[in-house]
Amino acid sequence: MAKRPLVMRTVSSLRRTLAPWRKRGQSIALVPTMGALHAGHLKLVSDAKRRADRVVVSIFVNPAQFAPHEDFGSYPRTFDADIKALGEAKVDLVWAPTATAMYPGGFATRIAPQGAALAGLEDKFRPHFFGGVATVVAKLFLQVQPDFAMFGQKDYQQFCVVTQMAKDLDLPVKVIGIPTVREKDGLALSSRNAYLSEAERRAAPELARVLKVSASRIKAGEPIEMVLEEGAVEIARAGFSLDYLEARHAVTLAPVASPKDGPIRLLVAARIGKTRLIDNMPV
Which among 36, 26, 136 has a CA at the least distance from the CA of 82? Predict the structure, then answer.
């Protein structure tokens, strides 16, 4: 039977547990999550174990990154199953603060990221989002003080924002991006995939297919604008309502007009039924 990982609920207990590890010179990797763990999260854990002596996984559904009309209340919460999976993965510690521990009474500070956070992608549709993400991730970095922090690249704009934030604030942590983990049919793993009906789940891989085909066409020299216009039509034909399908610079997320503008990342967000999915691929 897998050993249950330590579960900490307060900053003071977390720091007491981490202190001896640091005293022994052990390196620490942090895997930030909102729970509802899937194979993508566990890939972050396995990569973390290869990089560091100790692995901490945080589980915190962050209210600061949800707007009032979004799914904070219904976001999947599977804590017992998550702890079991993390025990089997031999994680050392789970940092699972309450909302009060993370945002105590009188909390009045919020990070306002710019740069990639204002690229006109997720921020256009969720203007509150990256302020909430940057604030909670900065707190996690300061609470755990990891040597490494592992982030999946499915949330690519978030990865860019967090990487820049750590750099700008001189936080002594190396942010590691891990390629998106996918189902056999190409669908990017996401906790929100649980919201999809059977018919929606059959249609959902179209996002990845369009990204893959579009990337190949752009790499072959076809005009970016034409490729994206045709890709948008295919996504709509599959039953999605498209928020965006964009070609951006892979580091700055600035718009690009041709492959000469630098390394390119294709990013998409679309709704099918009540579920909003995002995905991305390099060109």
Answer: 36
The structure's pTM equals 0.94
Beta-sheet pairing, 93-95 with 6-8: parallel
If residue 271 lies in a helix (H) or strand (E), which one and from where to where? strand 264-272
Which residue carries 């990487």 as its tokens?
Answer: 163
In the chain, residues under CATH classification 3.30.1300.10 are 191-282
- Residue intervals of the chain classified under CATH 3.40.50.620 are 6-178
Beta pairing, strands 241-249 & 264-272:
antiparallel
Question: How does pLDDT run across 96-129, given as a tens digit for each residue?
Answer: 999 999 999 999 999 999 999 999 999 999 999 9
Q: What is the pLDDT of residue 3?
A: 86
Eight-class DSSP state of 229: H
Q: 41 an active-site residue?
A: yes
**Structure confidence at residue 249 (pLDDT):** 97
- Distance (Å, whole) CA 12 – CA 194: 35
- Any bridge partners for residue 152, and if so which? 178
Instruction: Specify the CATH number of the domain 6-178.
Output: 3.40.50.620
Q: Element (H or E) spanning 278, and its range?
A: strand 275-282
Q: Which two tokens stand for residue 276?
A: 């909003």
pLDDT of residue 158: 98
Q: How far apart are CA 172 and CA 123, in angstroms?
A: 27
Residue at 71: amino acid letter: D
Contact 206, 240 (CB under 8 A): yes
Cα distance between residue 68 and residue 73, in whole Å: 10
Residue in 38, 41, 128, 249 annotated catalytic? 41
**Superfamily covering domain 191-282:** Pantoate-beta-alanine ligase, C-terminal domain (3.30.1300.10)
Tally the residues of the chain: 283
